């Protein structure tokens, strides 16, 4: 299985780490069936500036994970009903090692089960009773690694996938679709007359408009669609398992959601911003995923040259 990151649930707060308020503390979920263990772990983590949530069972932990986003899970192995191994396996059905690292707490007597822990998808383990300094060092390394990987795939301005990762993901999906004889589509879009906005309000406001437009696109995308930043003010949406007619409908939804109401610029101003969109679809003549990008790009050019603010195939 590929280790590529497929979802785009990254929050900008994760990328802008320099701000030191409570919202930007790293969130750690501690799971242990013994309340005393939870208290000891939680107090040590809080002292070291982590935002801590606790769960007394695997079931509760999985529920919390499905509702909020965490930077790390510290997971006791020996728990009644659902063991740490089982919890970890369930976590890995939804999150990669990078999306949500897990640190298992193993009792000395279970040391020969350490390999089982890794098979179930833990990133690391620590032996109970643990040294506080070792625990803190391991936590720090796991979170640092997770964020380093994120920074290499995420566009820091908009919080969506960058161009490099967009291509890697598209290529992976292209090969999967071809093997399974399924169809995928790609939407390329470019903001209309963006230079005028930049010249009128400056680059900083231009950046803010870019972020607003990404949000408006995300509002109408399905959970399986992925948006990325192709270049300056050009964006791409990858639509798995989607034929061109449906892709056209989604592109129209994006176009309307962006142009329907003006974007606020400070207290005084607002501007209607529009997009031109082109669509490409995988078919029997595609030699590579680049052919779909090329087709979408050609369609985008048609939209631009026939009046802008439209979707073309
Ligand atoms: P068209 O309708 O033909 O697309 O016209 P346009 O003015 O949008 O032209 P074009 O796409 O060629 O120009 C894009 C402009 O977007 C030029 C560049 O200064 C600006 N731009 C690119 N990246 C960024 C960015 O990250 N921030 C800001 N503020 N502006 C950017
Ligand atoms: Mg236990
Ligand atoms: Mg452009
Ligand atoms: Mg443009």
Automatic annotation (TrEMBL):
It comes from the Bacteria. Coiled coil: none annotated. Residues 182-313 form the GGDEF domain. Residues 27-143 form the Response regulatory domain. The modification 4-aspartylphosphate is found at residue 76. May play the central regulatory role in sporulation. It may be an element of the effector pathway responsible for the activation of sporulation genes in response to nutritional stress. Spo0A may act in concert with spo0H (a sigma factor) to control the expression of some genes that are critical to the sporulation process. In the N-terminal section; belongs to the phytochrome family. This is Circadian input-output histidine kinase CikA. The lineage of its organism: Bacteria, Bacillati, Bacillota, Clostridia, Peptostreptococcales. The chain holds residues 675 to 987 of 989 of the full protein.
């Amino acid at each position: 299985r590929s280790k590529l990151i497929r979802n785009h649930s990254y929050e900008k707060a994760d990328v802008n780490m320099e701000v030191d308020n409570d919202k930007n503390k790293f969130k750690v979920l501690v799971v242990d069936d013994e309340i005393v263990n939870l208290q000891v772990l939680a107090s040590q983590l809080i002292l070291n500036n982590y935002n801590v949530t606790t769960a007394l069972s695997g079931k509760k932990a999985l529920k919390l994970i499905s509702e909020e986003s965490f930077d790390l899970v510290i997971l006791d192995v020996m728990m009644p009903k659902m063991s740490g191994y089982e919890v970890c396996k369930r976590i890995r059905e939804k999150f990669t090692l990078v999306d949500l690292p897990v640190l298992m707490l193993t009792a000395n007597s279970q040391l020969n089960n350490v390999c089982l822990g890794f098979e179930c998808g833990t990133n690391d383990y620590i032996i109970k009773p643990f040294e506080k300094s070792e625990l803190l060092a391991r936590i720090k390394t796991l979170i640092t690694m997770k964020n380093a990987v994120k920074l290499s795939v995420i566009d820091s301005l908009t919080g969506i996938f960058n161009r490099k990762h967009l291509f890697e993901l598209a290529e992976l999906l292209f090969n999967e679709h071809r093997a399974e004889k399924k169809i995928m589509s790609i939407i390329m879009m470019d903001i209309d007359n963006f230079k005028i906005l930049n010249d009128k309000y400056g680059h900083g406001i231009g950046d803010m408009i870019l972020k607003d437009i990404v949000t408006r696109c995300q509002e109408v995308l399905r959970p399986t669609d992925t948006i990325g930043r192709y270049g300056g003010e050009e964006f791409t949406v990858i639509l798995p398992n989607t034929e061109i007619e449906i892709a056209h409908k989604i592109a129209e939804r994006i176009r309307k959601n962006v142009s329907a109401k003006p974007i606020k610029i400070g207290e005084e101003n607002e501007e209607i911003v529009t997009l031109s969109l082109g669509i490409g679809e995988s078919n029997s003549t595609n030699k590579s995923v680049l052919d779909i990008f090329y087709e979408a790009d050609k369609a985008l050019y048609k939209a631009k040259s026939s009046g802008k603010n439209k979707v073309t195939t």
